[in-house]
Specification:
homodimer; alpha+beta; 6-stranded mixed beta sheet; 5-stranded mixed beta sheet; globular; ArgJ-like_dom_sf (chains A, B); acyltransferase (chains A, B); EC 2.3.1.35 (chains A, B)
Chain lengths: ~400, ~400
């Protein structure tokens, strides 16, 4: 039974374009979900370069181990994703599942196993019955289609209430390129489920080492600025595949002028997906944007922004539509970062609440109440010690979160 | 209207002994709470040494600034505590409140202002109407009594559902000494309220510099191992006052053999108080002890233990009486500390759940269910990289937390 769609979801899934060089297919393994597709196969043209970022969690799942191992090749020919069982903390059996899956897919796609990426999301601790995936692969190989991006986005979901997609275009030199991606995740807080997965595809031609830098940089400013409950999963993975079919002039370095538009478009896609993940946070009723300025550095600003975004007291206050700015001050203070208590200022919804270390004399709570009753909450903090700035996105903390994560028996 | 007493509270408040050299009095200021005492004055004999630890939050309240400023004198003659308004983020006015209060109390006690400690707990951002405290002080000075420890423990509460006290005795050389303390705090998660305050009194004679080391060491293993929701308040304060009336032989150094019993007793009192704070966490229905062994170092073990204790996913699972060990693995992994995924082990309630990086073959969920339905939950993790060990204490995350912190209008 599909959960109710988040009140913060975008109007609709975007028109997912064909990305030349990418084909998808989906099927049902029956390993956990009945009656819906839960395995996705994607095939990439030979020569597709790949970049990846993985969870920093020290207990990564077997698919993450594998991804890290093969990433240095810089090339990809396939991707297999399953939803329902995350293949985490599964020891040697989990490792074998990944290797057997990669081998089976490689054979069907006439590729090498070390060019096949694997991602899994779902319960931690259960092994995957490997044949439930591998037995599907031959039929999926036959079904591969460039038009199946929308289906692919849907078959990787676990407790998401909506599929998350984003599209952007750019020019590299004189050549138009397209970037399209989809992600799953309720911000890593689905019951028993790990994780946030994001797969981004482009027809641009970009060498793997440059692609990796582009992905890492955009990741720092997008997925790494989103939190729902601070619980970093064991399986977070973002992979970017560049097929080269656009045949643009290949950039020589990461700082080529020709890449400026692509960087902007990639950041736009990843930020969009990251924000959608926060919008699907369990029980979320409000989407919260935290902006921090005046910090010692950008990383420092991000730490402060995430401290606010992760504070249960801030998030419950917002759920209660309470402009409880004292809790925001507390969260800045607990971040461990430099902040000038007696010079800092705070706005909510553009209304000045505090400045120079005390409540603003102009502040009247009724002025911010209309903002607090809305679905989009904006918090602006200036900590008055430097030029560092950052955003963080999150959602509020409600009874819905408790219901989903506590009110059940396993 | 007093909230229902936590189901995890101890049977009763301990018999709070007279500590020679300490006298207390309480009164009602009316500044926020009507019909209950909310200001406490304590007086200490001349010669009382003092030690203090304060919040690491970068937005400390005015009383914390003051405490840090006067602590180097090492001597104390008085303590004034008020509940209801925390005097945090109040700028120059807040500073003046503290100074005026200290000056007024000093005059009444024939002491110097820099020997008067101030602590406040309550809403952040509101100034304190100073005269509401200072006007009470003359009467409180007349009412001072050595027997009023129990009353004192009750008048500093904010959203606590029970007063928290602890008592222990020790010998320094051949001399019996007593340590008694009380604390308030629902683990820093009371709506609008800051904080955790703890005041510990002893008749032992201990020089200030040694006393400070004893307090800091015990604090690291007690209050700093407790969390309710990771929100470190702006006003956390623990003060230890030693009147010297026991007339023990004064220890020459921190490592004197004569102090062994005192150290044990102090740790016992502070651990007891710290655990009571977790037991009074808002909405708490289960008290959780997390034990980590096998870490790279003791501080590393503590970081891991707190990552587990602060994880919303772990805490909601426990609230739901779900032995969701996968979330505990995730929390270990997100801690940032060294852990051997393929050698670690996990027990809940003494039942082995996972070992050597996978589910234990002996594990059957029904075996741990009785433990999960109880009020005391024990989690034991060995991360298999060294000898470091630590405890952390917390409570579960329930609808009660959301109700208290979100379901109201300010």
């Amino acid at each position: 039974m599909a959960p109710n769609k988040s009140p913060l979801a975008p109007e609709s899934f975007p028109d997912f374009p064909v990305i030349p060089g990418v084909r998808y297919a989906c099927g049902n393994s029956g390993m956990r979900y009945k009656g819906r597709d839960d395995v996705m196969l994607a095939e990439f043209d030979a020569g597709t370069t790949v970049a990846g970022v993985f969870t920093k969690n020290a207990m990564p799942g077997a698919p993450v181990d594998w991804g890290r191992k093969i990433l240095p090749t810089g090339l990809a020919r396939g991707l297999v994703v399953n939803a329902g069982i995350a293949n985490v903390f599964t020891g040697a059996a989990g490792k074998k599942t990944v290797e057997d899956t990669a081998t089976a897919a490689a054979q069907l796609l006439n590729a090498s196993p070390e060019h096949i990426y694997i991602a899994s999301t779902g319960v931690i601790g259960d092994p995957i019955p490997t044949e439930k995936i591998t037995s599907l692969l031959p039929r999926l190989t036959e079904d591969l289609s460039a038009d199946a991006g929308n289906s692919a986005a849907n078959c990787i979901l676990t407790t998401d209430t909506f599929a998350k997609g984003a599209v952007a275009t750019a020019k590299i030199g004189n050549t138009d390129v397209t970037i399209a991606g989809f992600a799953k995740g309720s911000g890593m807080i689905a019951p028993d489920m790990a994780t946030m997965l994001a797969f981004i595809f482009t027809d641009a031609a970009i060498p793997a080492s440059i692609l990796q830098q582009l992905l890492s940089d955009a990741n720092e400013r997008s997925f790494n600025c989103v939190t729902v409950d601070s619980d970093t999963s064991t399986s977070d993975t973002a992979l970017l595949f560049a097929t080269g079919r656009a045949q643009n002039v290949i950039p020589a370095t990461n700082s080529d002028d020709s890449l400026a538009g692509f960087k902007r478009a990639l950041l736009e896609v990843m930020t969009d997906l990251a924000q959608q993940v926060a919008r699907d946070g369990e029980g979320a009723s409000k989407f919260i944007t935290v902006k921090v300025t005046g910090a010692e550095s950008n990383p420092s600003a991000k730490t402060i922004a995430l401290a606010i975004a992760n504070s249960p007291l801030v998030k419950t206050a917002i759920a209660g539509e309470d402009a409880n700015w004292g809790r925001i001050i507390m969260a800045v203070g607990k971040s461990g970062e430099k902040a000038d208590r007696d010079k800092m200022s705070l706005k909510i919804g553009g209304i000045l609440i505090a400045e120079n270390g005390a409540r603003a004399s102009s502040y009247q709570e009724k002025d911010v109440m209309p903002h607090m009753t809305g679905k989009e909450i904006d918090i602006d903090v200036d900590v008055a010690v430097g030029d560092g700035r950052a955003f963080a996105w999150t959602c509020d903390l409600t009874h819905g979160y408790i219901e989903i994560n506590a009110d059940y028996r396993s």
